[in-house]
Amino acid sequence: MQRITHDTRNHHHLKPPETFEGTVPYALEILTSGRGSGGRIDSPFYVDHVHPILVSSVERAVVSLLFKSQDWTPVERLYHNKGQVFEWRIKLTSGDVVPVFFDISQVNDLAPVSDAVRQEFNQRSHTVPVPDATLISRFPLIKVEARSAAEAADFISDHLERAVRQGWQVENAMVMADGWRNDYDLTRGSEKTKMSFDMRSCLVLNRADLTILTLMAGKRRGETFVQQQARMLVESGEARCAPPGSSLAAAVETEKTAWRWAKFIVTIMVVSMPVASAVVYHFTDSALFAIVAAFLVPIIIFFKAPTEPPRSRRRGSSPSR
């Protein structure tokens, strides 16, 4: 079959596809970008900043466009240069087995993902292939659906804490076992079992956050992971990182309101010191009373001020899940 020839003039950054259907025109851009021929390990097709959940669709589209046919069979997947170059050996209808190389050094889970891709991936996540595994447990396999790593950790924690109330003790945890599930060892006396969670729909989330937070699942102390993560995002100035429409985004807004309320109280306290001092001195002509008032009034304001901003109190407690 004939390969497509490449235009070597344009070396611009490619915009990540915003839908799974968009992987086909994206693949065409890869073929015509001139950044590699794909036929040799030292000249791989360059896959720009793309999320891992999209890269497989991109690679399939590239191969189909490259050989102008969808009638081919994957034979073997190999990785080179410390995982930065992916070699896909495919079998054509002629019987020939040929390699196609991809530079995947820029593929990572920090790449932007549109809401359309997230939604479609969640709907098809159960079709993501997984290695054969036999799960023996008192508990059924539980599917995790979340818009953020913190929400996933809270969801898992709810189930683990329910098991703890039934007398089970959470022991070791294995995160992303076989690349698709979380396993938590449980013991109750002489009994041993596992509670397993299907994490495939969470593969669209930041893998580092997902690993760290779900590893701590079942170990909450008071606050939920969503509340803790919201505070961290606000304090670090990264509140925009909360996925729109998620409970984490709602918690971030509550946290931002609480911060504004706290700043308002502090401002009132600071302003009240000279005002209280001036008023008391005017009526008593006593410097001592003025100094006492300057310190006493802010203390009274601090202890009498509401502990929550009005908007939070109307809505109830901070959102969790």
The SSE string, one letter per element, is HEHEEEHEHEEEHHHHH
Please summarize the sheet with the most strands.
4 strands, mixed
**Rg (C-alpha, Å):** 28 Å
Distance between the termini: 53 Å
The number of distinct helices, counting runs of at least 4 residues, comes to 9
The helical percent reads 40-55%
Strand content: 15-25%
Count of the domains: 3
Read across the widest sheet, the strand sequence of neighbours is 1-4-3-2
Work out the number of β strands: 8
The low-pLDDT segments are: 1-10, 307-321
Descriptive report:
- This protein is of the alpha/beta class.
- The chain has three domains: 81 residues, no CATH class; 107 residues, no CATH class; 98 residues, no CATH class.
- The protein contains nine helices and eight strands.
- The protein has a four-stranded mixed beta sheet with strand order 1-4-3-2, with no helix packed on it.
- The longest helix is centred in the last third of the chain and has 38 residues.
- The chain is elongated, with a radius of gyration of 28 Å.
